[in-house]
Design goal:
Order of helices and strands: HHHHHHH
Number of helices: 7
Structural class: mainly alpha
Low-confidence stretches: none
Number of strands: 0
Distance between the termini: 63 Å
Radius of gyration: 24 Å
Largest sheet: none
Shape: elongated
Helix content: over 70%
Number of domains: 1
Strand content: under 5%
Mean pLDDT: 86
């Protein structure tokens, strides 16, 4: 597998993890909101208004937060590359020695590391230092617009489930149907997140489901108290 293919796979996995987390946030936050409102009132219009407002506010907040966060990351990566570019221009021999030391630290013998460092430097010195020293692929810098759009879509998709679950059934079955649908969806998110991250599935599912159940229980109790 080439470095480019490896970077592409890593990027896709990162997007998938971000998508799962965004959907998880959308499910829990919107479920907590609509269940809380349902505890306070049986008015379908009030529940819909609260759910839609929560969906829009949450998705836009997630998108804005991701844009700011990834923009900062991209600026840091570009600054690091610019600094490395200056160092290569001003002290090429010191940078060659540094690259050699880094390759030795990764398990190569001193002679082989020196030879590899020289070949990498001749081919593309900046790329070599970016990958080995900084852990950055100059061709795959973080894109804030992609991150913002992905977060918006993931959150919206997750939030749509509890909103539909609370609106479609009758007043007497709204909360039980929503709780069941949300816990099932959170279990799936837990499985997906665990498999993508290589973590134990049962623990991830339990943690995700417990968090969602707690959020809905608290908001429903508060809504019921305020409604009464």
């Amino acid at each position: 597998m080439t470095d480019t293919q490896s970077a592409a796979i890593s990027t896709r996995l990162n997007w998938l993890r971000a998508g799962v987390l965004g959907a998880n946030d959308g499910i829990i936050s919107t479920a907590g909101l609509v269940v809380g409102v349902a505890g306070a009132t049986t008015s379908r219009s009030a529940i819909v208004a609260a759910g839609v407002a929560g969906l829009l506010a949450g998705s836009l907040s997630m998108a804005a937060g991701e844009y700011v966060s990834v923009s900062s990351q991209r600026d840091s990566e570009k600054a690091a590359l610019d600094f490395e570019r200056r160092e290569l221009a001003e002290a090429p021999q010191e940078e060659l020695a540094e690259l050699t030391d880094l390759l030795v630290a990764r398990g190569l013998s001193r002679d082989l590391a020196r030879e590899a460092a020289e070949q990498l430097t001749e081919r593309d010195a900046l790329r070599a230092h970016a990958r080995v020293e900084l852990g950055i692929n100059p061709d795959e810098l973080a894109n804030p617009w992609h991150a913002a759009f992905a977060s918006l879509i993931a959150f919206t998709a997750g939030a749509a489930l509890p909103l539909l679950a609370i609106v479609l059934p009758g007043a007497s079955s709204r909360v039980p149907v929503t709780v069941g649908a949300v816990l099932a969806a959170l279990a799936l998110c837990g499985v997906a997140g665990a498999r993508l991250g290589g973590a134990p599935v049962p623990r991830a599912v339990l943690r995700t489901v417990a968090g969602g159940a707690l959020a809905m229980a608290v908001t429903y109790a508060v809504g019921t108290w305020l409604g009464t």
